[in-house]
Amino acid sequence: MPPKATILVVDDEPHVVRLVQANLQASGYQVLTAADGRAALQIVEEKVPDLVLLDLMMPGLDGYEVCRRIRDYSDVPIIMLTARGAEVDRIAGLDAGADDYLTKPFSVGELLARVRAVLRRSRCPEELRNRPPFRSGPLAIDFGRHQVTVAGRPVELSATEYRLLAALARNPDRVMLHEELLREVWGPEYRDEKEYLRVYIRYLRQKIEVDPSHPQLILTQQGAGYRLAALPVADA
Predict the structure, then answer these.
(1) How far from 122 is each of 75, 77, 130, CA to CA, in Å?
(2) CA-CA distance, 193 to 94, in Å (whole number)?
(3) Using one digit for the tens of pLDDT, what is the confidence trace for 53-71?
(4) 98 near 54, Cβ under 8 Å?
(5) Could you tell me which of 11, 35, 20, 15 has the C-alpha nearest to residue 110?
(6) Domain extents for the chain?
(7) pTM higher than 0.85, yes or no?
(8) What is the CATH number of domain 6-121?
(9) Which residues on adjacent β-strands are paired with residue 27?
(10) What is residue 125's predicted lDDT score, i.e. its pLDDT?
(11) CATH 1.10.10.10 correct for 126-228
(12) Spatial distance between the Cα atoms of 137 and 228, rounded to a whole number of angstroms
């Protein structure tokens, strides 16, 4: 059996760290800990964990800033842990680069479910690799090589961005409903989390559209969902 993932827990409250660490270790995960943002940044660089559980409200560097700095050099999945559960706070965390958001107090079951879901999304499913290449206008996806290009230029996508683009590419010119995309990309427990979808659609548009404010590839069907346009492919 392959070893389970290594998870970095970042929180300035020792009792929270002990509780999370004990439950993760009981589930077979390797656990690293940090009590502040600077220590977390050093561990991410040196130890390269598979997942980061990051407290939002810490002295010095807060979770938002730590998340932004990690995103400068790493796509490691990040789950924000915070007592602030308003939608505006969740969106701010996602905008900073977090993959998920868990509001304190949370149950052990909810924590472990989110950890499993985020780790699952970080791995490319084998069925994606077996799909034929996809092209639409300047966009090209080579699933076998896990490679995305726009007008021949390589585009770096996070695991979640790639899965979202792949879901749209599997259904070109068909409107995929919000709930459908959330179930397929994030999992059934995320079917009502539309802010996740809005944020990641914006991320994708910034990376693959010539003009993200006037998208030609990823189109919005107001109140329903999104579709990936099947545009003519220019001859090489």
Answers:
(1) 9, 7, 18
(2) 12
(3) 999 888 889 999 999 999 9
(4) yes
(5) 20
(6) 6-121, 126-228
(7) no
(8) 3.40.50.2300
(9) none
(10) 62
(11) yes
(12) 11
